[in-house]
Write a structure and sequence with these properties.
The protein is mainly beta. It is 1% helix and 64% strand. The strands form three sheets. It has a 26-stranded antiparallel barrel. Strand 16 and strand 17 form a beta hairpin. The longest helix is centred in the first third of the chain and has 6 residues. The protein starts with a helix and ends with a strand.
C-alpha cells in the first residue's frame, strides 16, 4: 500500500451511533464558545522590606525598591474560528514573560513568546577589573604580593549575576485532514558573569568569568494521525556561540617562575547539535505497537587560544586545539497487549549510543602557565546502553491488581575503568483497593549490577589507587521498598501516607563509596471543612546516609567517613471564601530544615566535622476582595526567613587564606517581607 493510498483511506467518516438512536435533539450544555474580547488586567505596586540577592535569586526582587505589579490576560474569539491571546506576567520586574498567540482553529496557529530571567548569584570582592571583555587587570598601583596578608588595596564590589533573554516563535499549520506541521524557533542571549578560578602553581585567585552566550534552536516536525496509526518525523538543530573564547588575568602574586605574569583560561567553545527523528505507533486489535528512531551529530569547534602566555616557556610542538565530534543513535520499541480481561503484557527495548569521533593523540601541556608537564593523551569517551524490560499486569479481583517485571540493562564504554556492566532488576507491585475507603500499594525492586574486569586506565594521571571503585561503575546490590496508602474517609477528608527505603551496597569496593541508605516518609491531610473552607497540611522527612573508605598512603583503606543528611519539610494551606464569596483568603505556610553531618574515622581517632544547615520559613497571605463583578482589589503579604551555615566557606574573606585570593563568601541569611496591593479589572 502506497503512502498516497493510505492517506486516501484515512478515517474521515462521521461518528457512528446505534441504529434507531435519535440524536437530533442532543445539545452540549458545556459547549459554550465565547466570542469577542475578554480578559483581566492587574495593576498595582509592591515593595520588599530589605535587599537580598538570595531572596531575589530568580524572582527579580533582590532590591528593596518599589516595583510595579502588571499582569494581563486578554483573549479575542472572532468569527470563522479566529482567535488572539495575549498574556503578560510580571512586566514590572526583571523576571518577566509575554506571550502572543493567534490563529484559526483547525487550520493554523502562530505564537510569539518573550521571556527574561535574571539569576542573582552573589556579591564578590575583587581587585580585578575588565580592561575589555576578555582581560582582567589589576589596579595600576598594584604591588605584587607574596601572601594575601600583604594586600593593602581597597577591593571593588562586583555583583555576580546573569541575565537570560529568550524569544520563541512557533507555527502550526494543518495542510489537510490528518496532517499537522510545526516550526519552533528559539533565540537566546545570556550575559553576565560568574566566579571561576585560576592558579599559578600553588598561588590561586577567584576570578570573574564573563558570560556572553548566544544559543539558537530550530525544530521542524510533521505528524500524520489516523485512528489506529500515528507518526511523526522531526528535525532539531541547535547552535551555541560564545563571544568570548578565553579569559586572560594578571597575576596578583610574585611570579614563581619567570614570565608567569599573565594567566589564561579557555572558556566554553562554540558547538552544534543536529538530530533527525521518527516516531510511529499502531493499534492492532488489543495490541499497541510504538517505535522511535533518532540519529544525530554533536560537534564542538577547536579552541583558538594559545596553551600559555608565558614567553619563557618553549613553544610547544603541538597544542590542545582539538575539534570534537560525536554521532548519536537512540531507538525505542514497545509493545503493549491486552491478553484477556485479567492479564496485560508489556515489553520494550531501548538503545542509546554515542560514538565519539574525536581523534586521540598525546599532547604536551602547560600547567598553570608555569611549566610544561608530562604529555597526556585525550580520552574520547563513547558508550552504548541497551535496556530491555518486560512487565505483566494481572487483575486478581476487581479490588486487587498485581504487577511484576524484569529489567535488563547492559552498558558498554570506552576509555573508562569498566568496559561492560550488566544490571538486572526484578520488581513486583501489589495494589489493593478496600471498597471506596482505602487504596493500598506495596512495591519492591531488587537489582544487581555486575561490572566486568574493573581496571585502572593507564592514561589517567595522576595514577589511581587500584583498590578504588567509582560508585557509578562499581558492583552494586540495590533494594527499593515502597509503601503508600490513600484513605478516603468521606467526601470531605483524605489522608495520604507514604514510605520509601533505598539501600545500596558496594560489596566489592574497598575504597570509595561502600554503602548508602535513603529513607523518606510523608503524611498528607486534606479536609473540606465547609463548602467555603479548605484545609491542607503535610509533613515529609528524608534521610540520606552513606559510608566511604579512603587511603591516605595509596594502599589499603585507613580512613572511613560517614555522611548523614536530614531534610524535614512541613506546611499548611488554608483557603477560605466568605461574605457571599466576595472575599477569598489564602494562607500558605511552610518550613524546611536540613542538617548535614560528617564523621571521619582515622587511625588517630574519630572526629565530627561542623554541621551544614539550612533553615527556611515562609508565610504567604493573599486576600482578594471583589468590589464588583468586574473589579477586585488584591492584597499580598509574604514573609520569608532563611539562615544557612556552611563551615567550608563562611567568613572566608579575600585574605583569609595566604595563597588563595578569594572573592569572599557569606552564607545566605535574610529576614524580609514583601507587601503588594493591586487592582484587577475583568471584562
Amino acid at each position: 500500500m502506497s503512502f498516497q493510498s493510505s492517506f486516501v483511506f484515512a478515517d474521515t467518516s462521521a461518528p457512528r451511533f446505534p441504529e434507531g438512536l435519535d440524536v437530533s435533539k442532543w445539545q452540549c450544555k458545556y459547549c459554550v464558545f465565547p466570542k469577542g474580547l475578554e480578559g483581566e488586567i492587574e495593576l498595582g505596586v509592591g515593595i520588599p522590606s530589605d535587599s537580598s540577592y538570595k531572596f531575589g535569586e530568580y524572582n527579580g526582587l533582590e532590591e528593596d525598591d518599589p516595583y510595579a505589579v502588571f499582569n494581563a490576560s486578554l483573549s479575542y474569539r472572532g468569527d470563522n474560528a479566529l482567535f488572539y491571546n495575549l498574556t503578560i506576567q510580571d512586566l514590572g520586574l526583571e523576571t518577566r514573560e509575554l506571550t502572543l498567540e493567534t490563529g484559526k482553529q483547525g487550520k493554523y496557529e502562530l505564537s510569539f513568546a518573550y521571556d527574561k530571567l535574571t539569576h542573582h548569584l552573589s556579591d564578590a570582592a575583587t581587585p580585578f577589573a575588565f580592561s575589555d571583555s576578555s582581560h582582567l587587570v589589576l589596579p595600576t598601583d598594584w604591588t605584587a604580593i607574596a601572601t594575601t596578608q600583604e594586600m593593602d588595596e581597597e577591593l571593588s564590589s562586583v555583583e555576580i549575576k546573569t541575565e537570560r533573554e529568550q524569544i520563541k516563535v512557533s507555527a502550526l499549520f494543518i495542510p489537510a485532514r490528518s496532517w499537522e506541521t510545526y516550526l519552533n524557533v528559539k533565540h537566546e542571549i545570556k550575559e553576565g558573569n560568574k566566579l571561576t578560578g585560576g592558579a599559578f602553581y600553588f598561588n590561586s585567585a577567584q576570578l570573574i568569568e564573563p558570560i556572553d552566550y548566544v544559543t539558537d534552536e530550530i525544530e521542524l516536525a510533521a505528524t500524520y494521525t489516523l485512528k489506529k496509526w500515528q507518526s511523526r518525523i522531526a528535525y532539531y538543530g541547535s547552535k551555541f556561540t560564545n563571544n568570548t573564547n578565553g579569559l586572560n588575568w594578571q597575576n596578583p602574586f610574585h611570579p614563581i617562575v619567570d614570565g608567569a605574569d599573565m594567566g589564561q583560561l579557555a572558556l566554553p567553545q562554540d558547538n552544534q547539535a543536529h538530530h533527525f527523528s521518527a516516531v510511529t505507533g499502531y493499534q492492532w486489535g488489543k495490541t499497541r505497537l510504538d517505535g522511535s528512531l533518532s540519529v544525530g551529530q554533536l560537534s564542538q569547534d577547536a579552541t583558538d587560544i594559545a596553551a600559555t602566555l608565558n614567553s619563557e616557556i618553549d613553544p610547544l610542538t603541538n597544542t590542545a586545539n582539538i575539534s570534537t565530534k560525536a554521532n548519536t543513535l537512540n531507538g525505542h520499541f514497545r509493545v503493549n497487549s491486552v491478553i484477556n480481561r485479567k492479564f496485560q503484557l508489556k515489553a520494550s527495548y531501548r538503545q542509546n549510543e554515542r560514538k565519539n569521533k574525536t581523534e586521540s593523540h598525546t599532547y604536551a601541556w602547560v600547567s598553570s602557565d608555569s611549566f610544561v608537564n608530562a604529555p597526556r593523551r585525550n580520552l574520547p569517551y563513547s558508550f552504548k546502553t541497551q535496556l530491555s524490560d518486560i512487565e505483566g499486569i494481572y487483575r486478581v479481583t476487581s479490588k486487587i491488581k498485581l504487577r511484576g517485571g524484569y529489567n535488563h540493562e547492559e552498558k558498554q564504554r570506552s576509555n573508562q575503568e569498566v568496559e561492560k556492566s550488566v544490571e538486572q532488576s526484578y520488581w513486583a507491585k501489589l495494589r489493593f483497593r478496600l471498597s471506596n475507603i482505602a487504596d493500598l500499594q506495596v512495591k519492591t525492586v531488587q537489582s544487581e549490577r555486575d561490572s566486568e574486569n574493573y581496571s585502572i586506565v593507564s592514561d589517567i594521571t595522576p595514577e589511581q589507587n587500584p583498590l578504588l571503585r567509582k560508585y557509578n561503575l562499581a558492583d552494586r546490590d540495590r533494594s527499593l521498598n515502597k509503601v503508600s496508602a490513600n484513605f478516603f474517609i468521606n467526601e470531605r477528608i483524605t489522608i495520604d501516607l507514604s514510605y520509601q527505603d533505598i539501600e545500596n551496597e558496594y560489596s566489592n569496593s574497598l575504597i570509595g563509596l561502600t554503602e548508602s541508605d535513603e529513607q523518606s516518609y510523608g503524611i498528607d491531610f486534606s479536609m473540606l471543612v465547609t463548602d467555603s473552607l479548605h484545609l491542607h497540611t503535610y509533613v515529609n522527612q528524608e534521610t540520606i546516609e552513606s559510608d566511604q573508605a579512603g587511603s591516605h598512603d595509596f594502599s589499603l583503606p585507613n580512613w572511613f567517613l560517614t555522611n548523614e543528611d536530614t531534610i524535614d519539610t512541613y506546611g499548611a494551606n488554608i483557603e477560605y471564601r466568605f461574605w457571599d464569596e466576595k472575599v477569598k483568603l489564602n494562607l500558605n505556610y511552610y518550613e524546611s530544615h536540613s542538617v548535614g553531618k560528617t564523621l571521619i574515622d582515622v587511625y588517630t581517632g574519630t572526629e565530627n566535622f561542623p554541621e551544614f544547615s539550612t533553615d527556611l520559613s515562609s508565610l504567604t497571605l493573599s486576600l482578594d476582595y471583589k468590589l464588583s463583578d468586574s473589579m477586585s482589589v488584591k492584597l499580598k503579604y509574604l514573609y520569608e526567613e532563611l539562615e544557612a551555615e556552611d563551615w567550608t566557606r563562611d567568613n572566608l574573606t579575600p585574605d583569609t587564606l595566604n595563597n588563595v585570593l578569594s572573592a569572599g563568601y557569606v552564607s545566605p541569611d535574610y529576614d524580609l517581607s514583601v507587601t503588594a496591593i493591586s487592582f484587577s479589572y475583568r471584562f
